[in-house]
């Protein structure tokens, strides 16, 4: 008969280093022994944009916590404040935005009020981010490998050769075949999926503990999307990486996240597992989002 | 490679067209070199006619053109009536002086425009942006003659710099190092005048290109990876913003002969400017033609340079071509 | 309604010559597409990037000339139309683009955008055109308050609805939606889908919906055709496609659909 079947596709994801027993759809959280202080703790955070005089609130009273190795989803519509939250954690808010109140603690250390140079040191090395469109997130006139190596150089005091080695390792880790050849490629020579992997390699080069993802699969084809989500899941279990993924796509969140937070008009309105938030939502907004999501007539066969 | 060969061929066509057009235009302009002589009652009509015949001015236009092309092939670029010599030996030293002036000025202008433009684009506070905007607009508005005169005034009043010319009296007796210093001290004022004229436009282009690149997602992504800001600006944004600037640089080369005309005349710099002015006033039209052609060659070279540099700078264009 | 399909495409091929000197082999965006579009139904064309979907849409409205093949619209051969006949054809078939912000002129107001096709063809005077524009905007659920706003002041969903209103201005029979739902949030997608379904029932329109989102198309469309490497490889109703996909690419697409826990409600989802 010939041709591929879904089993082989799933098998390919498995061979990318995922745990033999983990399915690519659900991520496993590390077992909780005792109460360990959360990796990231946001308390009562409020951020406003100053647009000509009166400040317009972007997020208000957001409280959340992320444990080491946990995959958390942030569901919300465009303009609902998800990106603002991620940028606030990173310390990359635009100049006309201000944190009005609240605290962001990283490994127990307060981030708000930290000098910019300190926050820059955390970015990429401990908290990393991938943005939406990989075609736009890479510098078009520089080779891909040097863009990955640059991240290593920014955070590690080591020579160019070591940085290059780190970059090659990162490219291999995200499942890119033939990293040596791809190192010298330009972004426009790669496909969308390959570009997203390169962006992930940049983010993970210095082994951060938390990965923020702002709509990472929004501009990808569905098969590429499935691959990237599987990759994120395997990286998560392999590296013990915590992930906070912001998306308006319920499917992507259901595939990756163990816990979903729903954001509406800048506030967190619901929290729970995907089964709870999408299957039995309590808040009217969550219900509206879940109802609007197109579910195929018959669920596809699972692996 | 094929593209460059095609460009060279186009260039030859342009040169041909320019030479023909110049020939025709000068012919259409009233009078010729001997026109003033004709007004002088002491010189007889016959003498004037004989002089004209000797230099071939009474021949039909196409024949004159072909004779000029022949002298081009010999490397003489025609015959100057005013100086009584072939044009080429008059042209080269003047051309060299002009290129010295404009080359220095262009290099200095670009060396200043890039940091100022980058600073202008990335400055957070509105005060910096506004003051630079006002400064550049003012510089743009002041005519270059005025700037040159103002600098001359400065030279005369303070005596810091020589007021005009390229070399001082007694230049030949100076040692090598002293001669170099002498030329440099004469170069400062005219070059500054040119830099001040050219700087506003360049800085604006740099600023515009940088400002739009600094908003690009990959710049934000680079910041997100914790790359220090200076590296983001100079290592990421500037290379990506370079495209329009590279083309502009090539075109800067194209204007090397013509940009300094007025400044040279005002500041008595012995370049093409004063020579051209004399030649036009005297209807010494082979000389004018030679100058026009030299400018055209530089213009074409500048365009080709812009193309080549763009190919080298942007991998996406390389991918389209190869 | 006659049983004849509205559009019949046979052997449609489109080849691009690459400028690259190295690879002189042309790129084949469409490699012999055979497709029929039934009247009054919604046909989805699902494919990944590079499968040729947008090329097909553009060939259908003669924005591009196919290399070979035939397109028949209501019996008339489309590829050879010229002049007045081509203009009449273009009124019958309209194309809706993905990025509505890029497809609408930022300098015109909403009502000007909708009445622009009428203005270009010289239908009616200014007052009539404005009236018609407001009518059309109401059909897609935009209030008259939006009539004097510019596209960039509208939300993504409003813009897409505005683009639909413009497409309806010339009373088309066939609407081609090229990734019209991409980039919109799920609830906005649902809104736009509802408007489109409502319109279809009322005006008896036919839709060809091009997308990479199989899940959305399975809910929105009556039938789904899978485009792979420039060819139609499978075509069936959504339920059958999911239950028993025949072609390997279909199986890959079905496997890639992310499942979301069903909403535990008595009312139907979406």
Quick overview of this protein structure:
The complex is a heterotrimer of chains A (303), B (322) and C (270). Chain A has 303 residues and is of the alpha/beta class.
Radius of gyration of chain A: 19 Å
- Could you tell me the number of beta strands of chain A? 10
Distance N to C terminus of chain A: 20 Å
Along the chain, the helix and strand elements of chain A come as HEEEHEEHEHHHHHEHEHEEHH
Overall pLDDT of chain B, averaged?
85
> Portion of residues in helices of chain A?
25-40%
Whole-number radius of gyration of chain B? 24 Å
Number of helices of chain A: 12
Describe what this molecule looks like in 3D.
The complex is a heterotrimer of chains A (303), B (322) and C (270). Chain A is α/β, with parallel strands linked by helices. Chain A is built from twelve helices and ten strands. In chain A, α6 packs across α8. The longest helix of chain A is centred in the C-terminal third of the chain and has 18 residues. Chain C has 270 residues and is α/β, with parallel strands linked by helices. The longest helix of chain C has 18 residues. Chain C is built from ten helices and ten strands. The C terminus of chain C is likely disordered. In chain C, 37% of the residues lie in helices and 23% in strands. Chains in contact: A-B, A-C, B-C. Chains A and C meet through α1, α9, α10, α11 and α12 of A and α7, α8, α9 and α10 of C.
Architecture blueprint of SSEs:
The complex is a heterotrimer of chains A (303), B (322) and C (270).
Chain A: H1 6-15, E1 40-50, E2 55-66, E3 71-75, H2 82-90, E4 97-106, E5 109-110, H3 116-122, E6 127-130, H4 134-137, H5 144-155, H6 160-173, H7 179-182, H8 192-204, E7 210-214, H9 222-239, E8 242-247, H10 250-256, E9 259-264, E10 267-272, H11 274-279, H12 284-292
Parallel strand pairs in A: 3-8, 3-9, 6-7, 7-8
Antiparallel strand pairs in A: 1-2, 1-4, 4-5, 9-10
Helix pairs in contact in A: 5-6, 5-8, 6-8, 8-9
Chain B: H1 2-28, H2 35-39, H3 45-54, H4 61-74, H5 87-122, H6 126-141, H7 144-158, H8 176-214, H9 217-224, H10 229-254, H11 261-267, H12 272-281, H13 285-313, H14 315-321
Helix pairs in contact in B: 1-13, 5-8, 5-10, 6-8, 7-8, 7-11, 8-10, 9-10, 10-13, 11-12, 12-13
Chain C: E1 7-16, E2 27-37, E3 42-46, H1 53-60, E4 68-73, E5 76-77, H2 83-92, E6 93-96, H3 100-103, H4 110-121, H5 126-139, H6 156-168, E7 174-178, H7 186-203, E8 206-211, H8 214-220, E9 223-228, E10 231-237, H9 238-243, H10 248-256
Parallel strand pairs in C: 3-8, 3-9, 6-7, 7-8
Antiparallel strand pairs in C: 1-2, 1-4, 4-5, 9-10
Helix pairs in contact in C: 4-5, 4-6, 5-6, 6-7
């Amino acid at each position: 008969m010939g041709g591929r079947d879904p089993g082989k596709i799933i098998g390919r994801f498995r061979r990318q280093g995922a745990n033999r027993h983990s399915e690519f759809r659900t991520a496993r959280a590390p077992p909780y022994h005792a109460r360990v202080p959360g990796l990231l703790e946001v308390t009562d955070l409020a951020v406003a944009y100053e647009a000509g005089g009166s400040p317009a609130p972007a997020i208000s009273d957001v409280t959340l916590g992320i444990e080491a190795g946990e995959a958390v989803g942030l569901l919300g519509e465009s303009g609902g404040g998800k990106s603002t939250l991620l940028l606030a954690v990173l310390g990359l808010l635009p100049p006309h935005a201000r944190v009005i109140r609240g605290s962001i603690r990283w490994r127990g250390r307060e981030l708000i009020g930290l000098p910019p140079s300190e926050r820059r040191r955390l970015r990429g090395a401990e908290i990393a981010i991938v943005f939406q469109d990989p075609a736009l997130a890479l510098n078009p006139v520089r080779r891909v490998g040097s863009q990955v190596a640059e991240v290593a150089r920014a955070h590690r005091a080591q020579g160019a050769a070591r940085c290059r080695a780190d970059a090659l390792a990162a490219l291999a880790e995200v499942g890119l075949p033939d990293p040596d050849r791809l190192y010298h490629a330009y972004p426009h020579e790669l496909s969308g999926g390959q570009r997203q992997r390169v962006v992930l390699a940049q983010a993970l080069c210095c082994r951060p503990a938390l990965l923020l993802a702002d709509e990472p699969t929004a501009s990808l084809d569905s098969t590429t999307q499935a691959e990237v989500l599987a990759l994120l899941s395997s990286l998560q279990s392999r590296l013990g990486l915590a992930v906070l993924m912001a998306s308006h796509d319920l499917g992507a969140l259901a595939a990756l996240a163990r816990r979903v937070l729903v954001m509406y008009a800048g506030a967190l309105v619901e929290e729970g597992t995907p089964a709870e938030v999408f299957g039995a939502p309590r808040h009217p907004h969550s219900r509206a989002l879940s109802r609007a999501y197109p579910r195929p007539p018959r669920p596809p066969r699972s692996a | 490679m094929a593209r460059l060969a095609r460009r060279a061929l186009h260039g030859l066509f342009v040169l041909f067209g320019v030479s023909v057009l110049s020939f025709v235009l000068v012919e259409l302009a009233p009078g010729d070199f001997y026109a003033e002589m004709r007004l002088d009652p002491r010189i007889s009509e016959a003498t004037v006619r004989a002089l004209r015949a000797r230099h071939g001015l009474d021949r039909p236009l196409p024949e004159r053109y072909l004779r000029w092309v022949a002298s081009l092939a010999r490397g003489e670029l025609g015959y100057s009536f005013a100086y009584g010599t072939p044009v080429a030996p008059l042209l080269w030293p003047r051309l060299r002086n002009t290129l010295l002036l404009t080359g220095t000025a262009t290099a200095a202008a670009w060396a200043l425009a890039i940091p100022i433009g980058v600073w202008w684009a990335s400055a957070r506070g509105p005060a910096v942006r506004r003051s630079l905007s006002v400064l550049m607009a003012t510089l743009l508005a002041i005519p270059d003659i005025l700037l040159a005169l103002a600098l001359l005034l400065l030279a005369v009043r303070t005596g810091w710099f020589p007021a005009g010319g390229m070399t001082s009296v007694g230049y030949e007796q100076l040692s090598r190092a002293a001669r170099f210093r002498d030329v440099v001290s004469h170069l400062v004022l005219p070059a500054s005048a040119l830099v001040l004229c050219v700087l506003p436009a360049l800085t604006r282009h740099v600023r515009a290109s940088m400002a739009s690149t600094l908003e690009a997602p990959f710049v934000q992504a680079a910041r997100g990876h914790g790359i220090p800001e200076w590296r983001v600006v100079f290592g990421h944004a500037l290379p990506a913003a370079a495209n329009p600037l590279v083309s502009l640089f090539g075109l800067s080369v194209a204007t090397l002969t013509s940009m300094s005309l007025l400044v040279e005349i005002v500041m008595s710099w012995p370049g093409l400017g004063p020579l051209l002015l004399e030649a036009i006033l005297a209807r010494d039209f082979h000389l004018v033609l030679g100058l026009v052609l030299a400018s055209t060659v530089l213009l074409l070279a500048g365009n080709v340079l812009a193309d080549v540099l763009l190919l080298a700078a942007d991998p996406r264009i390389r991918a389209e071509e190869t | 309604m006659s049983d004849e399909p509205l559009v019949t495409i046979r052997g449609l091929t489109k080849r691009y010559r690459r400028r690259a000197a190295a690879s002189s082999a042309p790129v084949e965006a469409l490699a012999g597409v055979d497709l029929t579009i039934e009247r009054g139904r919604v046909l989805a064309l699902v494919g990944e990037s590079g499968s040729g979907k947008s090329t097909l849409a553009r060939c259908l409205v003669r924005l591009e000339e196919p290399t070979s093949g035939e397109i028949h619209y209501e019996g008339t051969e489309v590829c050879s139309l010229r002049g007045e006949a081509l203009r009449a054809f273009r009124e019958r078939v309209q194309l809706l683009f993905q990025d509505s912000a890029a497809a609408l002129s930022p300098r015109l107001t909403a009502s000007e955008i909708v009445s622009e096709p009428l203005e270009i063809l010289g239908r009616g005077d200014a007052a009539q055109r404005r009236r018609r524009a407001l009518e059309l905007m109401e059909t897609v659920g935009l209030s008259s308050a939006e009539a004097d706003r510019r596209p960039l002041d509208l939300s993504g969903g409003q813009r897409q609805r505005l683009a639909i209103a413009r497409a309806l201005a010339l009373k088309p029979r066939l609407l081609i939606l090229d990734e019209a739902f991409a980039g919109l949030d799920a609830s906005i997608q649902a809104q736009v889908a509802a408007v489109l379904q409502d319109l279809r029932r009322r005006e008896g329109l036919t839709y060809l919906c091009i997308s990479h989102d199989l899940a959305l198309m399975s809910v929105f469309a009556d039938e789904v055709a899978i485009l792979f490497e420039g060819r139609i490889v499978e075509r069936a109703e959504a339920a059958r496609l999911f239950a028993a996909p025949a072609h390997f690419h279909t199986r890959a697409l079905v496997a890639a659909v992310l499942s979301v826990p069903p909403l535990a409600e008595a009312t139907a989802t979406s």
